[in-house]
Amino acid sequence: MERTQEQQLTIFKDRGYSDDLLPKGEKQRNWRAFNYFALWMGAIHNVPNYIAVGGFLMLGLSTVSVMMAISFSALFIAFVMIMNGAAGSKYGIPGVMLLRASYGVRGALVPGVLRGCIAAIMWFGLQNYAGSLALLILIAKVWPGFLQIGNGTVWLGISIPGLICFLIFWLLNTLLGFGGGNALKKFTTLLNPCVYIVFGSMAVWAASLAGIDNIIHYAPQHVEQSGSGIFLFFVIINAILGVWAAPAITAADFTQNAVSFKQQAIGQAASYFVGYTLFAILSVIILVGATIHYGVNTWNVMDIIQKWDSTFATLFAGLVILMTTVSINAACNLIPAGYQIAALAPRHLNYKNGIVIASIISVIICPWKLMESQDSIYFFLDIIGGMLGPVVGVMLAHYFIVMQGRIDLNTLYSSPGETGEYNNGINSKAFYATIIAIVISLGSKFVPYFETLSRLSWFVGVISAVMIYLFMQSRSKKGSLGQTANS
Question: Is the separation of the CB atoms in 360 and 114 below 8 Å?
Fold first, then answer.
């Protein structure tokens, strides 16, 4: 006899799962295309993304080629986010539970902790510190004496004014995280119009000062193109995809709220296509225009607005830019961390407990100390990104090809002590495929002969993981979770 959804949820609750990890009911799944369109549109415009565009301009490609590469990357981002969020929109489950379907009840802890705890919490702390530096600039613009608080006292490697700004920005992020996806939905709906007012105005300002023709034909001094144009085109796409490697794993955290797959697919596709096309045009015009105007490479938007004479314009633009950082930080780091920590002990922790734990750890790691050595930070994050790409590949291959789009929720939400369909609760084929793909993806970074391949590490990791995992499945006669699943 088939159980109703209410009966099924009651059983899962009795097994110790908190409401935050349970499949969303129909009444809770109210996100439509516009909500997904608004979710990412403004979040794309943040300080780290603009700095990244500055790096792209130094590759030696034309400004038009850089714009096209950034815009074209939306095709790949939208595909991965939509497809890896398909199970979320179908079953209403968060990303941490979807990982179980691919890696097993126990096996999901490894990629889950890597994405939801290590990468997410570290990124959360670093983004908070980067945002606090921008906040420090804004406060000092209005109140120069703020910088003298503490008379130069340094505590744990950070000044008193710096620590105050960090804690203020940290608190804003944490409060938004408490509200979860619904709070983020409302926040981004209000924020997005301001984002395009600010960056649209900055683009007009930069174009009027430098001239569109000069911006289009701009070429950085003493920079030579390091590779073919097509190769560098995909290097840019690979770099942008690397930023979305972690969010792609837990895309279901947001698609679980969708009315349907169609609504989330239309909304996310439109958001990325329109958002990244506008971002490509606006970011290049602003950065190149400012560079031409000031006569020095100016790749940080905060450096640009700091030079303005109008205090009001500086504050308004700066606050909007800070809010975009809050938006992306909550969506890509804090919310996934909250779900993952709750999944570690579902009988004892819930989503809000996870938010508190993640937020506290992000302060304890002293991100300002970590940023003292940028090379080591980006090397670590690059390694994490190289590990997460193969996880996405395995998840896509498992859900769409092995499972054929079906999940047995009763197996997924197993009782304590049960291991589900796999021996010891671990899908060994998924692990082997992931490990081999990681070696292929990251090994090239340490072997000079394959240095060129390492610049396309995300593509290499995802493609190799899919091929290896499907090959292992074809060689195995043993059934999988998908073969016993109910639609």
Answer: no
